[in-house]
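STRUCTURE REQUEST FORM
Protein name: Chorismate mutase
Source organism: Streptomyces pseudovenezuelae
Requested output: structure tokens
Priority: standard
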Amino acid sequence: MTTTPEATIADARERIDALDDRIIGLIQERMAVSSVVQRTRIASGGRRVHLAREMEILGRYRDALGRPGTSLAMTLLELSRGRI
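Status: completed
Returned output:
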């Protein structure tokens, strides 16, 4: 059975949309968990942001995804903690 290019593209786009929905859900979950960490850290007398931890996160994304991973990680950090 041969599929048309249009059908292949439509199927792939449907899969991309489903992946994007999952990614968005995971980002929202990450933001909620980060909020718990921040509130707990502040309540115990700490700072809202832990820069060493953020550097670990940046490194993890850079190592896994290359230079664009750093930008992605920065965006995730900004979403999770707001601008500093």
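Reviewer notes: Residues 5-43 form the longest helix (39 residues). Helices lie at 5-43, 51-65, 67-81.
Form closed.
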